[in-house]
UniProtKB/TrEMBL annotation:
Gene Ontology cellular-component terms listed: cytoplasm
Lineage, broadest ranks: Bacteria, Pseudomonadati, Pseudomonadota, Gammaproteobacteria, Aeromonadales
PANTHER family: PARKINSON DISEASE PROTEIN 7 HOMOLOG (PTHR48094:SF12), PROTEIN/NUCLEIC ACID DEGLYCASE DJ-1-RELATED (PTHR48094)
Domain DJ-1/PfpI: 1-168
CDD domains assigned: GATase1_DJ-1
SUPFAM superfamilies recorded: Class I glutamine amidotransferase-like
Protein name: 4-methyl-5(B-hydroxyethyl)-thiazole monophosphate biosynthesis enzyme
Domain of life: Bacteria
Keyword Nucleotide-binding: no
Keywords: Repeat
């Protein structure tokens, strides 16, 4: 099984690349799928960096993923929010109680917009925190809600911690430590 990472024009490049790179370091197969409305695989990210997806979302065969990850950034999160196939996959993932993860604007713009948070604890970029229900909002850098199989995080500066948490929940503590060590992260960023 593998992890699906959604990307769209205007997705945040640090988050997208940090997620994909960290998961690959954790020996996790990653499928980077474009949600570009024009069906293109190459997208211009939020700061102008060109990224090329492995495939377009419409090219994906029906398959199960261990996790589906949504990077933030605008307008990328809005494009993903407005892509019916992406939302259908996220809803199916939630219904099957498989992992979902979102960072930066995506927890509010994509997940909350489509009622995909349920009553899970979550965080997002501080500029979007008012859009999450106050009773569910955490200001932690990375929030894992085990019961809802949901990981959320705040933004580009938390992207590696977020990705390491994905490695931890999918492959275990030792795998996350093995990935984190050579990355020379500050101790607080590494899984315990």
């Amino acid at each position: 099984m593998s992890v699906l990472v959604l990307v769209a024009p205007g997705s945040e490049e640090i988050e997208t690349v940090a997620i994909v790179d960290t998961l690959v370091r954790g020996a996790i197969e990653v499928v980077l799928a474009s949600c570009c409305p024009a069906g293109q695989r190459q997208i211009r990210a939020s700061r102008g960096v060109q990224l090329v997806a492995d495939c377009h979302l419409d090219e994906l065969a029906d398959q199960e993923f261990e996790a589906i990850v949504v990077p933030g950034g605008l307008p990328g999160s809005e494009v993903i929010r407005d892509t019916p196939r992406a939302i259908a996959l996220l809803k199916a993932q939630a219904a099957a109680q498989r992992w979902r993860a979102a960072i930066c604007a995506a927890p509010a713009v994509v997940l909350q917009h489509h009622d995909l948070l349920g009553d899970a604890s979550a965080t997002c970029h501080p500029a979007f925190q008012a859009q999450l229900p106050a009773a569910q909002l955490s200001t932690a850098r990375v929030v894992t809600d085990q019961a809802h199989r949901l990981i959320t995080s705040q933004g580009p500066g938390t992207a590696i911690e977020f990705a390491l948490e994905l490695v931890r929940v999918l492959r275990g503590d030792e795998a996350a430590r093995t990935v984190a060590g050579p990355m020379v992260l500050p101790p607080r960023s590494c899984p315990e």
